[in-house]
């Protein structure tokens, strides 16, 4: 119905021009198109029917009101859509910016903190494992030495313990000598010989006891200075025995130290492994978060592009529709003025 009325309005407009200028020329121009011919037929039919002009005026006025309402609705709806578009664009741009910040901050944490920390911890673990391997080599070597020298070690310990007991007997015997008899002197010299017999010739203690025996041979034991020299020599020998025993025990102490050292290395490895596991878990978590935020950024960017393209298409539709409504409104207003003032009963197709 509106299309017919519009055609009628346009026909009225052209009829007014015909009356003002050259009706024959305008009709010829309209006849060149299907739309123009339809207008001419409508005008001709209205002229032949002789319908009241006021009905046409009312219809045109109603059409004008409808067009104005539609144009107003179009403007309102597009304004609402524009506000929605702007809000959506602002929100998506903020989402994109937040995602970019999250990705950059996360990557910065990974590159400058967690990756170096993981490398440092792994390097420490590798180093301590190397120390631990060296420790076991030393331990195995010490065990081998201990097994090889165990029998000799035990013999030397027994030898030194016996020698120490004999030295103590000799010192006790010397302490009892005030005006020694020949028998007591012989007895003391025999004690020294007994000590010498218990010290192997290859022992480092042998020269010391040999010098002591030479000192005690053919001495006047009634001379206190001589006794003092002998006592000092015996005490020196007595004090040297524990040092020798300590040297012989070094291998055993070394094994204990190596075991303690190995245990400490293992504790360090365990602690570092816990730190490494925690660091790897943090790296995995942040990597997953970074990838998710990168995916979010990509999604937001696609949504923003789609929204901009959709809004551009809707803007084109709005512009074209508004132009069409405006044109139809102008034609309708012009037609109304013409219908109110022009006689078009002589229109012929």
Describe this structure in words.
- The chain has 349 residues and is mainly alpha-helical.
- It folds into two domains: 2-99 and 326-339, no CATH class; 112-286, f41 fragment of flagellin, N-terminal domain, CATH 1.20.1330.
- 89% of the residues lie in helices and 0% in strands.
- Helix 1 packs across helix 4 (53-175) and helix 4 runs antiparallel to helix 5 (182-198).
- The protein is rod-shaped, with a radius of gyration of 61 Å.
- The two termini are 22 Å apart.
- 16% of the residues are buried.
- Residues 12-23 and 33-40 have low confidence and may be disordered.
In short:
The protein has 349 residues and is mainly alpha-helical. The protein contains 8 helices and no strands.
Task: Provide keyphrases for this structure.
mainly alpha, 8 helices, 2 domains, 349 residues, single chain, f41 fragment of flagellin, N-terminal domain
Topology of this structure?
Layout: H1 2-20, H2 23-30, H3 34-49, H4 53-175, H5 182-198, H6 206-216, H7 224-248, H8 250-339
Helix pairs in contact: 1-2, 1-3, 1-4, 1-8, 4-5, 4-7, 4-8, 5-6, 6-7
From the 3D structure, determine the CATH topology of the largest domain.
f41 fragment of flagellin, N-terminal domain
Helix-strand pattern:
HHHHHHHH
Cα separation of the termini: 22 Å
Count all strands and give the number: 0
CATH architect. name of the largest domain? Up-down Bundle
The major β-sheet equals: none
Q: What fraction strand? A: under 5%
Task: Give the count of structural domains.
Answer: 2
Which residues form runs of ≥5 with pLDDT under 50? 12-23, 33-40
Specify the structural class: mainly alpha
> Gyration radius, to the nearest Å?
61 Å
């Amino acid at each position: 119905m509106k299309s017919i009325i519009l055609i009628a309005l346009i026909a009225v407009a052209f009829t007014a021009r015909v009356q003002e200028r050259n009706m024959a020329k305008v009709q010829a121009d309209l006849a060149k198109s299907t739309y123009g011919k339809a207008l001419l037929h409508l005008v001709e039919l209205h002229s032949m029917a002789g319908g009241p002009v006021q009905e046409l005026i009312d219809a045109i006025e109603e059409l004008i009101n409808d067009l104005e309402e539609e144009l107003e609705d179009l403007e309102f709806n597009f304004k609402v859509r524009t506000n929605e578009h702007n809000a959506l664009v602002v929100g998506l741009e903020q989402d994109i910016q937040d995602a970019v910040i999250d990705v950059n901050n996360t990557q910065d944490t990974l590159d400058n903190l967690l990756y170096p920390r993981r490398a440092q911890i792994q390097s420490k673990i590798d180093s301590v494992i190397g120390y631990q391997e060296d420790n076991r080599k030393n331990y195995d070597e010490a065990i081998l030495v201990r097994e090889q020298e165990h029998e000799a070690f035990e013999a030397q310990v027994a030898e030194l313990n016996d020698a120490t007991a004999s030295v103590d007997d000799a010192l006790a015997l010397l302490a009892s000598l005030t005006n020694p008899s020949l028998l007591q002197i012989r007895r003391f010299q025999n004690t020294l010989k007994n000590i010498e017999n218990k010290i192997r010739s290859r022992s480092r203690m042998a020269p010391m006891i040999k010098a002591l025996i030479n000192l005690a041979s053919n001495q006047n034991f009634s001379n206190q200075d001589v006794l003092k020299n002998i006592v000092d020599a015996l005490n020196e020998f007595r004090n040297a025995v524990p040092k020798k025993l300590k040297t012989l025990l070094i291998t055993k102490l070394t094994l204990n130290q190596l075991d303690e050292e190995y245990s400490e290395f293992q504790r360090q490895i365990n602690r570092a492994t816990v730190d490494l596991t925690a660091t790897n878990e943090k790296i995995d978590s942040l990597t997953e978060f970074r990838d998710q935020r990168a995916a979010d950024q990509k999604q937001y960017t696609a949504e923003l592009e789609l929204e901009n393209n959709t809004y551009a298409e809707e803007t084109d539709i709005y512009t074209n529709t508004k132009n069409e409504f405006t044109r139809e409104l102008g034609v309708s207003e012009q037609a109304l003025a013409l219908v109110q003032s022009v006689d078009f009963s002589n229109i012929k197709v």
